[in-house]
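Friendly challenge for the regulars: who can give me the C-alpha cells for this chain first? No prize, just bragging rights.
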Amino acid sequence: MNKLLLLRNFVFDLMSYRFYISIVACFSLFFCLKADAQMISGSELDNPDIQLRNESYFGININSHGWGISYRRGKHKTGTLKRMLDFDLVGYRHPKEVKISNRSGSNNSRSYYYGKLNNASFLRAGYGYQKVIFDEELPGALQIRLNYHTGASLGILKPVYLEIYKPSQIFPDRYELVTEKYNPEKHFVENIYGKAPYLKGINELSINPGVYGKFGVSFEYGPDQEVVRAIEAGVVVDFHPKAMQVMAFNSNNPLTFSFYVTVNWGKRWL
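First reply, four minutes later:
Bragging rights claimed.
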C-alpha cells in the first residue's frame, strides 16, 4: 500500500512539474514573441518613409469646372497616417456658360459669355489626413493613399466688364465704345461689342465665405523617397450659404460638386 501511495504521489508531482513547466514555457514564448514584435516595430524606424516625417508639394489641378493650383504640407502621425494642411486656388466655370462673339464687329472684338455677371474662383484652406492603404514596400513600388480634407472655402467674385456700343455724345448719328459693368437689364447681344480687359474690375472683388469637403485617392510611384511624384483624383464639395452669383439667367446653387485630377511634385525631409 505504501508503495502505491508513493507511486501515486510521484506521478502527481511529475504532472505538477509538467504543468508548471508548460506555464513557464508559455510565458517564455509570449515574451519572446513580444520582444520580437518590439524589434520589428523598432525596425520600422529605419524605413525611409518613417524617417522622412515631413513633406510638401505643389500641384496643377484640372477639374470639372476649370483648373487651378494646390499646395499641401504634411507630417507623419503614424507610419501610415499623415496630418495634412490643404490649400487650393481654382477657377469656377458655370455649366451654363456659352462663349459668343459679335459677328458684326471688327476682328479686334473679344468673345464673351453672354449673361455672365461675375468671374468666380475658390480659395480653399483646410486640414485633413492622408492614409496609406496599399504599399508594396519595394523600391520604386506603387503606393496608394486615401486623402480627406475639410475647411474654409472662400468664393471670390470679380464683376464682368464689357465693351458696349453707345450713341456718341459728340456725333449723334454715330456710336462709340464704352466700358461698362455688365447689366442684364441694359446690355444685350445687339449692343455688346465684346469683353473688356480681364483686370477691369479687379478692385471690386467680393468674398463669399463657405466650407468645403474633399475626398481623393492618390497614386505615387518613384524610386527616390525624398521626391514626391503623385497623381490624385477625387471629388470636392463646396457649400456657400449665399449662392455664388455667376450667371444672370440661370440658377446658382449653394452646393458645387467638382471632380478633379491633380499632378503633384514636391519633397520629403526629416
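The longest strand covers residues 118-135. The chain is about 15% helix and 50% strand. Your move, everyone else.
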